[in-house]
Amino acid sequence: xxxxxxxxxxxxxxxxxxxxxxxxxxxxxxxxxxxxxxxxxxxxxxxxxxxxxxxxxxxxxxxxxxxxxxxxxxxxxxxxxxxxxxxxxxxxxxxxxxxxxxxxxxxxxxxxxxxxxxxxxxxxxxxxxxxxxxxxxxxxxxxxxxxxxxxxxxxxxxxxxxxxxxxxxxxxxxxxxxxxxxxxxxxxxxxxxxxxxxxxxxxxxxxxxxxxxxxxxxxxxxxxxxxxxxxxxxxxxxxxxxxxxxxxxxxxxxxxxxxxxxxxxxxxxxxxxxxxxxxxxxxxxxxxxxxxxxxxxxxxxxxxxxxxxxxxxxxxxxxxxxxxxxxxxxxxxxxxxxxxxxxxxxxxxxxxxxxxxxxxxxxxxxxxxxxxxxxxxxxxxxxxxxxxxxxxxxxxxxxxxxxxxxxxxxxxxxxxxxxxxxxxxxxxxxxxxxxxxxxxxxxxxxxxxxxxxxxxxxxxxxxxx
Length: 465
What we know:
Blueprint: E1 4-9, H1 11-24, E2 29-34, H2 45-51, E3 60-63, H3 71-78, E4 82-84, H4 92-99, E5 111-116, H5 124-136, E6 141-145, H6 155-164, E7 168-172, H7 176-184, E8 189-193, E9 207-210, H8 218-230, E10 236-237, H9 248-261, E11 266-270, H10 272-275, H11 282-296, E12 300-303, H12 313-329, H13 354-362, E13 370-374, E14 377-382, E15 385-389, H14 405-424
Parallel strand pairs: 1-2, 1-3, 3-4, 5-6, 5-12, 6-7, 7-8, 8-9, 9-10, 10-11, 11-12
Antiparallel strand pairs: 13-14, 14-15
Helix pairs in contact: 2-3, 5-6, 11-12
C-alpha cells in the first residue's frame, strides 16, 4: 500500500494546497487538514500538539515550511514522523522530487590551493590569519606566493609556522633559490618546475608542480613527465590557463590534450587567471571552471582572492567542486543540487501569479500589510485592497502610515527588498532577508525554526525618558 501523508495547512492556503496536490497526481495517498488558523505560516508545534487530535491514519505529517517549534518533540508525542515542507506551496512538486534524491555535498575530489600572493609583505602572524580564513572557506593547501625582485627573509619561518599550525603548504616561485629554501623548510608542494629546473626535485621531498619550459611547449612538459615517472616521484602537471583574449580557448584545449596524452597524471588548473582578470561575477566562472575540471579529472586548482570582485572566489570554488562531484557521481546535470552559486537570480523567483496574489488579497480581513511579488511588480495588500507598483515610492501615499514612523520604516525596508528581488529575479519572502547564495555570510540571521522571532526594532516600545 502506498504511503499516506497528512498535510496540515491554514484557511487561506487550503484551497491552493488541494489544487496543487490534485495537479501533482502523486503516487502517495494524502489527506489535507485545515488546522483552524488563518495563515499557515503562523502555525506552531505547540498549536499542532493542542489542535491535532486525529492523524487520519497517516504514515507521516508535513507541516508548513515556516512552522516554528520543536518538531522532534511533537513527532514523539504523536508517534509518527513530522517534517517541514517547502516555504512556498508552489514548491511542493520540487520538494518531493528533491526528497527522493539529496546529493551528498560533503564529498569532493578537487583540492584547492589558495595563494597568499603578497606573502613577502606579510608578517608570519598575518599569514597564519590569512591561512585560517582560506581554510574556513574551503582551502586544502596554503600557497606562499613569492614576488619577483622582492626580499622574503621570513619565508622559511613562515612555512615552518604554517606547518606547525597543521596546514599543508606550497611554495610558489619561478626562482630556483626560493623553491630550494621552501622545500627544505618543509613545503609540501613546489610551484613551479620545468624541464630545466627538475633537478630541484632531487634536492627536496616536496611534490613538484610541472609547467612547460616555454608557455605552450607541451613537448617539454611531456619530457618532464617522463623524467619524473622515471624517478618514481609524485608530481602534478599545470599546462597553464590563460586569460580571455590572451589564449584562454587555446589553453583549455591544452588541458584537454594533456589529459588525452596522460590519462593518469594529476593536473592543476590556475583558475585565478580567469576569476581575477575578468570583471564579472566569479560564482558563474567558478561553476564553469570546476565543471571543466570535473570532466577532465583535474583534481587541483590554484585560486586567489586579490581583486575585490573576487573576494569570495575560494568559497565559491569549494561549493562548485562539491556540486560538480555530486552531478558527475549521479550522472546528472548540475541543476537543483544546491542554489549557493546563484547569487543574483533564482530558478523560480515568482511562485505566484498576479491573479493568485489578488485572490489571496481578496480573503484578507485585517489591516496588516502583506507584500508579495510577481512578474507584474511589487504588490502590497490588506483588507482595504491591493496596490501594485514597480517603484515603491509610488505606494507610500496609499499606505496611510505618514504618522507612524516605525511602521513606515518597516514597510520601506520590506518594499525595497521586494523591489530588488523583483528586478533581479529572486525570491522575496516578507520579514526575511534576501538570499545571496554563498556570496554573503548569513550571520542571522539564519532562521532557527525552533524559536520565535523577537519583536523587531520598529515594534519595540521606547523606554520613557
